[in-house]
Amino acid sequence: MKINYQETTSDLAVRIDIHNKFGGKDIDAWMLDLIKLQPGSKILDVGCGAGKQCFSYHDYLKGNADITGGDVSDDLLAQARGENEKRGTSIPFITLNFNKQFPFEDNLFDFTSCCFAIYYAEDVPFTISEMHRVLKPGGRLFTTGPMPQNKQLFYDVIREATNKPIPPMPGSSRFESEFLPVIRSLFSSAEVHIFENPLTFESAEPFVAYTRASLSEDRKIWTSLFEGKDDFENLMREIEKVAARRIEKEGKLVMTKVVGGFLATK
Ligand SMILES: C[S@@+](CC[C@H](N)C(=O)[O-])C[C@H]1O[C@@H](n2cnc3c(N)ncnc32)[C@H](O)[C@@H]1O
């Protein structure tokens, strides 16, 4: 499956910021508590973006780990390297396309992760088998992504604003149904954990900012809803009206993120 997808630094940063400001729960704390990283571990984070998980692992292990981040986006890798400079850390951020063979030998890492990225993989068994191949026996894989019930309100508002069906999302439509069976078939054990985070908006503006950053991220995926820039702006205005109407009626908008965390052992 060819997925036309491009993440930009600013879209990703806007969404991370809105999760932090309007969500009641901390996904990084949930993740760290679940994966219980061991000091001295050799770690590969695939689809690392601007390095969010790599820096979180680094801080948790107080620098006592060998962490590498890999991504295809030059823009996000540059952002991650800039963060290294700011923090005085030297985590290697490398170009890694998870649709191709990883540039590592077999049985090398104690832990591989892929957070909010793996569902952009074109060939699910290939990408999972690469994550498995580079892990040591007994090593662990951790991957996160949206479950089918993720952020229903977001889709409801878009449906109401457009009167059109929502195109299938690579994340919520594939993460559980396509990735979990492959993980279960390759790994000796796999656990499923769920993180629920309600984001509460008392005005339409941050919800629209979130929507703008989400739809532009997936512009190619959302093309059934708008054609070009002007149409996109019209859609944003319609979404704002629907969001404002709902807030007037209900006092707030609650968009609940429902994230799955699959933790597997080789
Ligand atoms: C939503 S971002 C998540 C980034 C980071 N893990 C985080 O949580 O902040 C999705 C990431 O997947 C990356 N990505 C998409 N296709 C990829 C591919 N074929 N190989 C590696 N990374 C890819 C994007 O460049 C982007 O950094």
In words, what does this structure look like?
- The protein has about 270 residues and is α/β, with parallel strands linked by helices.
- It has a single domain (about 10-265), classed as Rossmann fold, CATH 3.40.50.
- It has helices at about 10-20, 25-35, 50-60, 75-85, 125-135, 150-160, 175-185, 205-215, 230-250, and strands at about 40-45, 65-70, 95, 110-115, 135-145, 190-200, 255-265.
- The protein has a seven-stranded mixed β-sheet, sandwiched between helices.
- Helix 5 crosses helix 7 (about 175-185) and helix 8 packs antiparallel against helix 9 (about 230-250).
- The model has no long low-confidence stretch (mean pLDDT about 95).
- The structure holds S-adenosylmethionine (SAM).
- S-adenosylmethionine binds near residues 12, 49 and 120.
- S-adenosylmethionine binds near residues 12 and 76.
Which assembly state applies to the chains in this document? single chain
Distance between the termini: 26 Å
Q: What is the H/E order?
A: HHEHEHEEHEHHEHHE
Assess the beta-strand content as a share of residues: 15-25%
Q: CATH first level: which class? A: Alpha Beta
Low-confidence stretches: none
Tally of individual domains: 1
Q: What is the CATH fold-level name?
A: Rossmann fold
- The best one-word shape is globular
The named CATH superfamily: Vaccinia Virus protein VP39
Structural class: alpha/beta
> What fraction, in percent, of the residue positions are helical?
40-55%
Number of separate helices: 9
The average pLDDT is 93
What is the architecture at the second tier of CATH?
3-Layer(aba) Sandwich
Biggest sheet character:
7 strands, mixed
Taking Cα atoms only, what radius of gyration do you get, to the nearest Å?
19 Å
- Small-molecule binders: S-adenosylmethionine
Strand order of the largest sheet: 3-2-1-4-5-7-6
Total beta strands: 7
